[in-house]
Design brief:
- The protein is of the alpha/beta class and 319 residues long.
- The chain has one domain: Alpha-Beta Barrel (TIM Barrel).
- Helices cover 38% and strands 17% of the residues.
- It has an eight-stranded parallel β-barrel, surrounded by four helices. Strands 1-2 form a two-stranded antiparallel sheet.
- The relative contact order is 0.13.
- Mean pLDDT is 95; it is low at 1-16.
Length: 319
Amino acid sequence: MRRWWLLLVAILSIPVAWAAPVGSPVAEHGRLAVRGAQVVDAQGRPYAVHGMSLFWSQWQPRYYDPATVAWLVRDWRVSAVRAAIGAQQGGYDAQPEAETKRAETVIDAAIAQGIYVVVDWHAHQPRPDDAIRFFRHIATRYRGVPNLIYETYNEPLPEYGWSKVLKPYHVRVIGAIRAIDPGAFVVAGTRSWSQDVDEAAADPLPFANVAYTLHYYAATHKGELRAKAEDAMRRGIALFVTEYGTTAANGDAPIDAKETQTWWDWCAKYGISTLNWSVGNKDEASAILKPATQGLSGWSEADLTESGRLVRAHLRTMR
């Protein structure tokens, strides 16, 4: 009798706000995990999420809004969004409370919609103390919530070696998260703007339920990067595309629709999750909104850039 009473107390202690809407991606698939070289759902079935990344939080904060998340779910049919929390350059380093609040706003909106949310430490330089402070707060507030995906380092620069710099960084940051939320699903950034996944495969992190970040921009990165990624997966690590573009690596023209489709087909073949860069109206080709577009939601075809129209059409086929 006492056991049943304790179980009832535990169930009732779960915040109602965290309950995923019936039929939503999180309600159907639960917390993600890694099995071998594959991301799987709570039932152990291979599962990939697809959606949109927001722009750097300190530079386009207006889209860190529940209305934007809701529209992406309703009209773009995303199963995940990414909160790209700027770590430096006037972001968390200058205004930690404001950046943390932006992360919480997007997380809460994703939970309300029943989709996954990548909480991205959007940095190029390793500053583990700030990252640990941020992720400890997030892990404490959202401990056990299945929607969360922790991305501990967006795009490490080439000068930061995997084994000497990045692996110790991830061990510290992931260790801090797992001390609070042992079941947290984590995606770890790799060297050279998250492209040298082969190095991570040769010296993987000492944790379960960790995938490794692969980023590509279709007009720049082609078969050579796919071959490197395939080698990494053969060695047994799971990959997760937390950011990709239809454009060149600088985020601007040209748009390569043919190579974008090649990448989409390749990711589908291997069951790899993808999030497109980016939700914003910056005057660059990778933004999904034209500079004149001001609304947070309700965008028409005329409000979208060429990349926005291409990605929206693709995402609407994925759910």
